[in-house]
């Protein structure tokens, strides 16, 4: 499998570390309810289709990357730097 | 088992009677060659990590150019030449050669890592075949031209790989893994050389 | 029998080899199969289940019968297909699955017991009693099972892996693949052409035919010559594409030196390639299939195309009197080639009443072969024709049941091939592999001319896609027959004879019918119940016929029945090749510190810590055991001073105006308030509230911190810091640099630590200017270094760092000086004892399941700020008093030894899992206290000091009574470290 790194281009899977779905980017406030933290920490969808994952280009540029891909076809649809995505999300708030 | 033998007492008292002796990470391992490919230690001098201060990338390039004669490299690129080179290094840049000019401090944060890395020059007409056994990136001349760099794997080791000429690559890995790096590259060199004789 | 005619073997170059100890001669260009046939060896192996005598049934990688073992000792390799094995001088080959010999095989009794060994035999027979499963049934079945075997010795031969990249991968170097490659190569595309054979040409190597007015092999040579002159084309022979994976990734196995008599020792046996291709052309051709007629498995029965290969390519006739049994027009060529070679044709049997064959030999139209005879090799066949059964003498039978396109790679990403009624076979599904197109016979083009055309058309469509162009290749004249076929899958027996489908796993027509009778009717169930298609050939020879028999038995059509899933690899791949990058030292990088050589010179045995190598202890001449050295080192540190290389701990420079904010978020405690020149211990949690790592962080400057991590968590913590910065707070202006390797750092610990330093530093230090937990820059012997007053031993301690180029030199000086002061260098063993006595934790304690609360460090979770893991760490379950909590243990009973990993029980409870109260994480013999001392996690432990508890080590069979004590045994008020 090959993944797309916004810095380095398409690279072999072996260079990447998988973290979780991209929901990890939206960290609840400290005083958020337990249920919110439970969802954030433990509850995950398991979609057949499009998913957004958080990967780390550990053997490459050390960027954290949000990769959209299809779990059925294994197509990689998009890749964005997590930092950029996070900043643009903040901008939208 | 070889057992320790106490060293003779060292005279003390004078200023700097004792001297710390520098030792390179590769001195006892290189050079080696096999077939058309050779490996040698690239003695580059000072190595500094340059992290741009937030929003100062454009200024940093200008200051770097004024101070050391090369612009900040684009992603996956190298600027400068042997003796004074700047390598894109993922989140930061690696300035290799000169001691960094103090003017850089205004736009960047510098960290001396001169002793943190082993730097190898791998060259020869079949270097691409050797690297094809180690690196999961297309390093063929047509797509990986001089001035191109990649942060990738060299066998199992995270490292930096830059093409510095038609037939030469500079490989940078953490100092502690020098022996493994040489072992892995040498094995690939031997295999490529043996295929030549098929 | 060797024929006297020109072919691709060179009869001027004889090659000697051995088969089961018998010396034989073949020629350059022979495979083992062709050489054996030339030596009139027909019996080559025994079948898997019934130990039936078997011969050579194909001429390619699909071979199911002729599997042999090559070599002996560590290099011994089983299940090599004789049809692919190129002979070389000195080759030693052994037949398999027979005892005591190939001709007299005791387990051939299984064949007589066949009525009892039918499908499902194992499932039905070895059910009861349960107590027999592991002790009796499994050993017996294992002994009888399997084909060839490995030597059990480690093999030191080299294997290798490699990566390749291209615009276009052409899979298969027959007429189709050659045309595709030439077309794309002329357009300047980077092309890889791979074929599993040792030469390109595919079927053309086996046929007497002409292309463009010249002999086929001459045509092939001309094209290959042009391709090899193209710098943009890479030609890979002996290379099987074994799997198609995501994003244009392909696995390929190259046999590099398996055909060489004495290869260079640096030459790998095989190379496992990962090929990354933007586009691919599958030109894998088609495989001829068998017909399931009674006793169709005798040595001497082979596919018609294999027979032609042996005659035309290798100048070998597998028999002197050959019969042909076919259902399609392709076999006509077999008859013509036999006649041209001067081999007698005993009979031509075609199932079709209107077969167009004509010739000067007995022809039976509308007939079938309904039985064969010959114990160790074919002697005769029985032909059922016009209501009669006729016996005909023949020592070879060429069978053609039609052709199966080699669709396997198209199925590796879940593509389902579709049924073609006109070809009576499956064709690859469109777009089953992104970027792959199908050309030639695999796509149903059965004539040579149609293949040539298809190769060009498909290459041009890819060129158009990628924006490349070149003049269209002219299609040369070539054989262009229409392909006619009549359906036949099996011939019913007249008695109880069995008709084989899967030769390798001994699955017969009867087994499939039985499977349906027992209601295993779906193709996937049938496969698993009968094991059809599960042998090394993965059903290449049997799947389609087995499906047809299944469809017939269930009354469904073949398209509705469908196929089972073809998975990678296409042909067997040795584990040695796939794992080549992990061979020997390739298993993992070794990390050596700058002091490694100097440490070795002092005779210290090294132990692994993560990837690092660290000294275990430094033996002195009178010391006979590690414990003696370790005890001495501990006491020297406690009484005098010791030196230990601690460079392997991770060191991360954290710089920038937001460095303090970042540290406040990643550590439970506060760092933004740390004064410049001070060090603080920090605890790091995962977001789920469990401890990630710990270590000290120093503030070297207002915007410059230096974090230390544990040795194994170096890269993990770096990843975590990048995560927190990039994913949670990209607005922060902060940067990280790993300086682990730039600095070589020594712990100098013991009452005389300051004395040792003061003899070496350029400025002397005292307790006032350098109090406990202070840090700063200073010079040592003229070199700029860093000093941290921290202690992992409980003693007055410092850590001194210099650039790594001076590490070796400084270690040599320190180790001499420390001895002058009555101290020593100490290794990991002593370091561990010192820290256990002091109750300091390592990853033995913080094993991923432990919270700050468990460690008694809940007060380190700062109440006034957020941190990673804070919300979760406050959950009730993570603060339950009954959680296992850190305690110390000392033995108080007659057994004095404690062991790490042992479990804890109350004195009254039996030592059973449900009564488990906790476990011991670290144990050290303390020479200071004179007893074993352990750290443990004990249920509600911090409330149980003074209580007696039972330690039980079930593995080492040790039971000891211990007293629960506070974890910090040595100098609990910390006065020594502050001295």
Give a quick summary of the entry.
Chain B has 3 helices and 11 strands; from the N terminus they run βββαβββββαβββα. Chain B has helices at 57-68, 127-132, 178-196, and strands at residues 32-34, 37-41, 46-52, 78-81, 84-89, 92-97, 108-112, 117-123, 149-154, 157-165, 168-174. Chain C is an alpha+beta fold and 979 residues long.
Give structural notes.
The complex is a heterotrimer of chains A (93), B (198) and C (979). By secondary structure, chain A is α+β, with helices and mostly antiparallel strands. Chain A has a single domain, classed as Folate-binding fold (2-Layer Sandwich). In chain A, strands 3-4-5-6 form a four-stranded antiparallel beta sheet. Helix content of chain A is 20%, strand content 35%. Chain B folds into two domains: 25-44 and 115-198, Probable tRNA modification gtpase trme, domain 1 (Gyrase A, domain 2, 2-Layer Sandwich), CATH 3.30.1360; 46-113, 2-Layer Sandwich (Alpha-Beta Plaits), CATH 3.30.70. In chain B, 19% of the residues lie in helices and 33% in strands. Chain B has helices at 57-68, 127-132, 178-196, and strands at 32-34, 37-41, 46-52, 78-81, 84-89, 92-97, 108-112, 117-123, 149-154, 157-165, 168-174. In chain B, β9 (149-154) and β10 form a beta hairpin. Chain B is globular and about 60 Å long. The N and C termini of chain B lie far apart (43 Å). Chain C is elongated, with a radius of gyration of 37 Å. The relative contact order of chain C is 0.07. The mean pLDDT of chain C is 94. Chains B and C meet through β7 and α3 of B and β8, α15, β38 and α20 of C.
SSE layout and pairings?
The complex is a heterotrimer of chains A (93), B (198) and C (979).
Chain A: E1 2-5, E2 9-12, E3 17-21, H1 34-41, E4 50-56, E5 64-70, E6 76-81, H2 82-92
Antiparallel strand pairs in A: 1-2, 3-4, 4-5, 5-6
Chain B: E1 32-34, E2 37-41, E3 46-52, H1 57-68, E4 78-81, E5 84-89, E6 92-97, E7 108-112, E8 117-123, H2 127-132, E9 149-154, E10 157-165, E11 168-174, H3 178-196
Antiparallel strand pairs in B: 1-2, 2-8, 3-6, 3-7, 4-5, 5-6, 8-11, 9-10, 10-11
Chain C: E1 10-19, E2 22-28, H1 32-38, E3 45-46, E4 53-54, E5 67-70, E6 77-81, E7 91-95, H2 109-112, H3 121-125, H4 132-144, E8 160-171, H5 175-186, E9 191-194, E10 210-211, E11 214-215, H6 216-228, E12 233-236, E13 239-245, E14 249-255, E15 270-282, E16 286-288, E17 301-303, H7 304-312, E18 321-326, H8 332-341, E19 344-350, E20 363-365, E21 368-373, E22 380-385, E23 388-393, E24 396-400, E25 403-405, E26 418-420, E27 425-427, E28 436-438, H9 448-465, E29 500-502, E30 507-508, H10 509-517, H11 523-530, H12 543-554, H13 558-561, H14 575-578, H15 596-601, E31 606-609, E32 612-615, H16 626-639, E33 642-645, E34 650-655, H17 659-666, E35 679-685, E36 691-701, E37 704-709, H18 714-728, E38 735-738, E39 743-749, H19 753-758, E40 775-780, E41 783-788, E42 797-803, H20 807-820, E43 824-825, H21 828-837, H22 870-873, E44 884-891, E45 903-905, E46 918-926, E47 931-939, E48 948-953, E49 958-965, H23 975-978
Parallel strand pairs in C: 1-7, 8-9, 8-15, 9-12, 15-28, 17-24, 18-19, 18-24, 19-20, 33-43
Antiparallel strand pairs in C: 1-2, 3-4, 5-6, 5-7, 10-11, 13-14, 14-15, 16-25, 21-22, 22-23, 26-27, 29-30, 31-32, 33-39, 34-37, 34-38, 35-36, 36-37, 39-42, 40-41, 41-42, 44-47, 44-49, 45-46, 45-48, 46-47, 48-49
Helix pairs in contact in C: 5-6, 5-9, 7-8, 10-12, 16-21
């Amino acid at each position: 499998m090959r993944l797309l790194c916004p810095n380095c281009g398409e690279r072999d899977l072996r260079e990447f570390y998988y973290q979780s779905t991209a929901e990890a980017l939206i960290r609840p406030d400290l005083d958020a309810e337990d249920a919110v933290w439970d969802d954030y920490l433990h509850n995950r969808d398991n979609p057949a289709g499009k998913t957004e994952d958080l990967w780390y280009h550990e053997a490459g540029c050390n960027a954290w990357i949000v990769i959209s891909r299809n779990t059925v076809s294994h197509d990689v649809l998009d890749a964005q730097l997590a930092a950029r995505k996070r900043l643009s999300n903040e901008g939208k708030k | 088992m070889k057992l320790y033998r106490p060293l003779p007492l060292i005279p003390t008292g004078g200023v700097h009677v004792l001297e710390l002796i520098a030792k390179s990470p590769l001195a006892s391992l290189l050079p080696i060659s096999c077939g058309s490919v050779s490996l040698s230690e690239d003695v580059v001098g000072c190595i500094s990590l340059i992290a741009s201060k937030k929003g100062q990338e454009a200024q940093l390039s200008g200051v770097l150019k004024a101070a050391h004669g090369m612009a900040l490299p684009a992603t996956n690129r190298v600027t400068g030449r042997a003796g004074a080179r700047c390598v894109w290094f993922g989140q930061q840049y690696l300035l290799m050669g000169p001691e960094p000019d103090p003017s850089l401090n205004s736009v960047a944060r510098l960290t001396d890592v001169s002793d943190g890395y082993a730097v190898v020059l791998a060259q020869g007409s079949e270097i691409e075949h050797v690297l094809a056994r180690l690196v999961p990136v297309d390093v063929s001349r047509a797509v990986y031209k001089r001035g191109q760099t990649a942060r990738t794997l060299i066998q199992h080791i995270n490292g930096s790989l830059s093409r510095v000429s038609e037939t030469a690559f500079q490989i940078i890995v953490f100092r502690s893994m020098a022996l493994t790096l040489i072992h892995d590259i040498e094995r690939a060199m031997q295999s490529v050389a043996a295929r030549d004789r098929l | 029998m060797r024929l006297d005619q020109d072919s691709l073997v060179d009869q001027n170059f004889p090659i000697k080899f051995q088969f089961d100890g018998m010396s034989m001669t073949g020629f350059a260009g022979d495979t083992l199969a062709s050489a054996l046939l030339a030596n009139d060896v027909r019996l080559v192996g025994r079948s898997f289940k019934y130990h039936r005598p078997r011969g050579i049934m194909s001429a390619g990688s699909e071979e199911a019968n002729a599997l042999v073992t090559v070599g002996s000792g560590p290099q011994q390799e089983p299940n090599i297909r004789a049809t692919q094995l190129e002979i070389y001088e000195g080759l030693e080959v052994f037949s398999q699955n027979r005892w005591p010999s190939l001709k007299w095989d005791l387990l051939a009794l299984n064949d007589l017991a066949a009525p009892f060994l039918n499908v499902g035999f194992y499932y039905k027979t070895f059910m009861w009693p349960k107590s027999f499963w592991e002790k009796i049934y499994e050993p017996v079945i294992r002994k009888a099972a399997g084909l060839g075997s490995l030597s059990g010795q480690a093999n030191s031969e080299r294997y290798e892996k490699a990566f390749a990249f291209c615009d276009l991968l052409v899979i298969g170097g027959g007429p189709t693949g050659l045309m595709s490659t030439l077309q794309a190569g002329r357009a300047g595309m980077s092309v890889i052409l791979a074929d599993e054979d040792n030469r390109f040409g595919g079927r053309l190597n086996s046929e007497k035919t002409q292309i463009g007015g010249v002999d086929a092999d001459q045509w092939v040579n001309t094209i290959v010559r042009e391709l090899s002159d193209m710098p943009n084309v890479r030609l890979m022979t002996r290379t099987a594409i074994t799997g198609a994976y995501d994003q244009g990734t392909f696995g390929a196995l190259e046999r590099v030196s398996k055909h060489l008599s004495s290869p260079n020792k640096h030459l790998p046996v095989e190379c496992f390639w990962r090929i990354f291709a933007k586009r691919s052309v599958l030109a894998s051709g088609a495989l001829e299939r068998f017909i399931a007629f009674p006793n169709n498995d005798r040595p001497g029965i082979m596919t018609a195309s294999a027979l032609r290969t042996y005659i035309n390519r290798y100048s070998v006739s597998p028999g002197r009197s050959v019969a042909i049994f076919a259902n399609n027009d392709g076999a006509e060529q077999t008859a013509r080639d036999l006649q041209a070679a001067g081999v007698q044709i005993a009979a031509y049997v075609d199932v079709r009443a209107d077969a167009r064959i004509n010739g000067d030999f007995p022809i039976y139209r509308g007939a079938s072969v309904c039985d064969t005879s010959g114990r160790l090799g074919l002697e005769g066949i029985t032909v059922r024709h016009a209501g009669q059964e006729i016996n005909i003498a023949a020592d070879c039978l060429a069978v053609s049941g039609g052709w199966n396109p080699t669709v396997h790679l198209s199925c590796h990403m879940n593509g389902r091939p579709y049924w073609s009624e006109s070809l009576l076979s499956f064709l690859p599904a469109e777009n089953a592999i992104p970027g792959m197109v199908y050309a030639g016979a695999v796509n149903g083009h059965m004539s040579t001319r149609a293949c040539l055309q298809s190769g060009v058309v498909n290459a041009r469509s890819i060129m158009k896609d990628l924006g490349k162009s070149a003049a269209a290749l002219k299609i040369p004249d070539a054989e262009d027959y229409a392909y006619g076929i009549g359906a036949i899958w099996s011939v019913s027996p007249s008695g109880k004879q069995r008709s084989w489908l899967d030769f390798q796993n001994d699955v017969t027509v009867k087994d499939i019918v039985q499977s349906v009778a027992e209601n295993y009717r779906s193709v996937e169930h049938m496969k698993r119940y009968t094991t059809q298609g599960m042998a090394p050939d993965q059903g290449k020879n049997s799947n389609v016929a087995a499906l047809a028999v299944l469809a017939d038995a269930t009354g469904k059509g073949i398209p509705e029945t469908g196929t089972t899933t073809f998975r990678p690899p296409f042909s067997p791949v040795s584990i040695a090749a796939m794992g080549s990058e992990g061979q020997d030292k390739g298993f993992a990088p070794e990390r050596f510190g700058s002091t490694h050589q100097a440490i070795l010179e002092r005779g210290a045995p090294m132990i692994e810590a993560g990837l690092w190598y660290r000294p275990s202890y430094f033996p002195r001449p009178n010391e006979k055991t590690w414990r003696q050295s370790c005890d001495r080192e501990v006491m020297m540190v406690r009484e005098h001073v010791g030196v230990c290389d601690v460079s392997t701990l991770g060191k991360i420079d954290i710089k920038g105006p937001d460095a303090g904010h970042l540290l406040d978020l990643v550590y439970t405690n506060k760092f933004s308030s740390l004064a410049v020149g001070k060090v603080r211990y920090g605890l790091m949690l995962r977001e789920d509230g469990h401890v990630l790592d710990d270590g000290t962080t120093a503030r070297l400057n207002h915007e410059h911190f230096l974090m230390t991590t544990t040795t194994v968590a170096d890269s993990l913590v770096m990843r975590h810091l990048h995560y927190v910065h990039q994913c949670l707070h990209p607005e922060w202006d902060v940067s990280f640099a790993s300086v682990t390797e730039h600095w070589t750092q020594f712990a100098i610990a013991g009452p005389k630590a300051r004395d040792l330093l003061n003899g070496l530093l350029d400025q002397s230090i005292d307790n006032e200017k350098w109090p406990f937990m202070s840090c700063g820059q200073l010079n040592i012997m003229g070199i700029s270094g860093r000093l941290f007053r921290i202690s992992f031993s409980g003693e007055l301690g410092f850590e001194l760092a210099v650039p790594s180029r001076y590490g070796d030199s400084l270690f040599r000086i320190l180790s001499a000086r420390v001895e002058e002061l009555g101290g020593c260098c100490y290794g990991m063993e002593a370091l561990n004892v010192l820290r256990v006595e002091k109750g300091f934790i390592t990853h033995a304690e913080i094993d991923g399941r432990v919270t700050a609360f468990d460690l008694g460090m809940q007060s380190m979770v700062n109440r006034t700020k957020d941190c990673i893991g804070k919300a979760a760490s406050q959950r009730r379950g993570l603060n339950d008093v009954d959680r296992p909590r850190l305690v110390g243990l000392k033995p108080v009973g007659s057994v004095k030894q404690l062991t790490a990993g042992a479990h804890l029980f109350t004195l009254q409870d039996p030592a059973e899992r449900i009564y488990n109260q906790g476990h011991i994480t670290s144990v050290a013999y303390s020479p200071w206290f004179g007893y074993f001392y352990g750290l443990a996690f004990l249920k509600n432990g911090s409330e149980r000091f003074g209580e007696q508890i039972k330690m039980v080590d079930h593995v080492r069979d040790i039971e000891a009574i211990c007293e629960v004590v506070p974890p910090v045994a040595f100098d609990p008020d910390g006065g020594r470290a502050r001295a």
